[in-house]
Amino acid sequence: AASSQAHGFQFMVLMNTFTQGLTRCARGEYDQAIAVLVEGIALSDRLGDKAFKCRILNSLGWVYGEIYNLEPAIRYNTEALEASYKLGDPEIIRNAEINLGEYYLALGDLEQAQRYLEKTYRDSQQRRKWGEEWMKWRYMQHCCHSLGELWLKKGDSEKALAFAEECLKLAEPTSSRKNVVKGWRLRGQAYLAQGK
User: Fold this and answer.
1) For 1, what's the count of Cα atoms within 13 Å in the CB-facing half-sphere?
2) What's the pLDDT tens digit per position in 102-125?
3) CA atoms lying within 13 Å on the CB side of residue 135
4) What is the Cα–Cα distance from 161 to 83, expressed in whole angstroms?
5) Radius of gyration over alpha carbons of the chain, in Å?
6) What is the DSSP code string of 15-50?
7) 63 neighbors 41 (Cβ within 8 angstroms)
8) Residues 177, 151: contact at Cβ < 8 Å?
9) For a 10 Å CB count at each end of the chain, is N or C smaller?
10) How many CA atoms lie less than 13 Å away from 109 in the CB half-sphere?
């Protein structure tokens, strides 16, 4: 009983650290988010945790990506991706791959961005495998928007528009406002590229 209580307490502390890092980033408190998530990595290491460490590494990369500090963003998301493959968690893998695709897109490395984003899109078509459905509704909105931006940069407004529509098809029923706005913006950019 004492062992399960200790494990439950550790889980709650790691969950709190992870959630606090996400919340601080979403509020624009980037320095605090980074400090909390770095502390979470150290705590994960001390506790021998692997699952939350992957999530925290991925989130730390995301925070750095939000402020366009892409070198540490790529480093942390790559570490999260490698650890997630060992763990076998599709959600963490997909989020890390999408983030990496976006960073390479921002750097103008369209081939590397395409490799990550198309892999995520293709792998997300799997069904009935462990973990495949968990949070797919959310990360596929992100993936479709990023793929649309990729195709817009590559000069294919038709593909960009198709991914904008797919993003909106996923985002609107769940009232995911951030991705609804991204989908609308991408749709407008694609129409503009077509002269409409």
Assistant:
1) 0
2) 999 999 999 999 999 999 999 888
3) 11
4) 34
5) 18
6) HHHHHHHHHHHHTT-HHHHHHHHHHHHHHHHHHT-S
7) no
8) no
9) N
10) 13
What is the number of residues in the chain? Answer: 196
Residue with tokens 């909390």: 36
Residue 162 burial class via C-beta count within 10 angstroms: exposed 0-12, middle 13-18, buried 19 and up: middle
Q: What are residue 124's phi and psi, to 5 degrees? A: -75, -5
Confidence (pTM): 0.88
Contacts of 121 (CB under 8 A, 6+ apart): 140, 143, 144, 147
Let me know: does 73 contact 61? Beta carbons within 8 Å.
Answer: yes
User: What is the CA angle 90-95-101, rounded to 5?
Assistant: 125
How far is the C-alpha of 58 from the C-alpha of 176, rounded, in Å? 21
